[in-house]
Amino acid sequence: MNTAPAVRRPSVRRMLVMLLVIGLGVTAYGVTRFKRDFVDFEVMQQAGVRALAAEPLYRDADGHFQYKYLPAYAFAMTPFANIDIEISKALWFALSVGLLIVFVQQSVESLPGRRRSRVFLYWMTALVLTKFVVTELVNGQCNILLGVLAMAGFNASRRGHAREAGALVGVAVFVKVYALVLLPWLVLAVGMTSVLAFVGVVAAGLLLPIPVYGWDGNLALLAGWYHTVTSTTEPNLLLRHAISFAAMWAKWLGPGPLASWLALASVAVALAAAALVWWRRKGVTDPAYLEVGFLLMLVPLLSPQGWDYVLLLGAPAMVVLMDRWTDMSAPWRLVTVAGFLMANFTTFDTVGQHNYLLVTTYAVVSIGAIAMLASAVHVRLRGLA
């Protein structure tokens, strides 16, 4: 009879508490370091105020901090509209940290065929996301909410709830319109029931402002949204946080037709890679996790106004790479590590002022993200996930 004492494993709850502490710590550091003071949240909160008063949401006079979300999201922000701005920021921060914990938990716990321990994956996920989480929380952004909705949709599809999966992805579109990247996954992997639910939610969201703004006013809002998004893209391509394919080529060649064509070609290659990941799903026990993670990591590269911190959406794909790293061939292990180092660990404090300028000037983070995506394709081609 074995009388050896049982080994007590750290509980998931303890890991979540650790993540909460880390999130609070890095955010406090970010507030001190960057002093951005929730500027993006202020834009969203102001949109909620304007929505209650049936005022125009999209105004050129707002400059760099124009509201760029679909009109329906402004109504989602109305609960914060009549609350003191400082209290609103504190509430949004607490909500964001809570959502961060949920997103990390979803990414780790939903991973099929896990090789590494939960403790390892929780700690490593917290580490590799720190750079992005600092900026996300300090700016008061909402990409974490998108990630939670996307993973909730994935888990719903896994349970056979196709309608719920489509509805959740539809809601995510109004948080960030680039959630549309998940539509091909719904079509190919989940089925038409999910697509119909998606279309229904999106249609309802587009019509949501009508009781306040009227039919013509709603059309004016949608036109204002389109104008704002398209007119503010080019000026942002050379900003240091921009990592999209469009920004990458503009930084290397300068804005212009050649850079634009090469960006489109890069988008085509990336979408072909996503199609390859889906095509090689046969023989993989639970293929959808990597497919959703791959598409989420593509978001900041496909969106012309994709910022580096939006890479936090790639957490599920990063979890796969960390969990399957020892199963990769030696060259691809190096590619994976290089991708993580370039994308996740190139900060002002880790590389210094001069090198950080080079990192942002030559789109090093974009290269790192591409390397991680290439590693994810390798994982699928080897049937590891």
Q: Give a short account of the largest sheet.
A: none
How much is the average pLDDT?
A: 90
How far apart are the termini? 39 Å
The assigned structural class equals mainly alpha
What count of domains describes the coordinates?
1
* Beta-strand residue percentage: under 5%
Task: Summarize the amount of helix as a percent range.
Answer: over 70%
Instruction: Output the radius of gyration.
Output: 21 Å
The low-pLDDT segments are 1-10
| Total number of helices | 18
Helix and strand pattern? HHHHHHHHHHHHHHHHHH
| Secondary structure tally: strands | 0
Give a verbal description of the structure.
The protein has one domain (12-381). Helix content is 71%, strand content 0%. The protein contains 18 helices and no strands.
Element layout with pairings:
Elements: H1 12-34, H2 39-52, H3 71-76, H4 85-109, H5 118-139, H6 143-158, H7 162-175, H8 183-190, H9 192-207, H10 210-231, H11 233-236, H12 245-253, H13 257-279, H14 288-302, H15 315-323, H16 330-344, H17 348-361, H18 364-381
Sum up the structure in keywords.
71% helix, mainly alpha
Task: Describe this structure in a few short sentences.
The chain is mostly helical. The chain contains 18 helices and no strands.
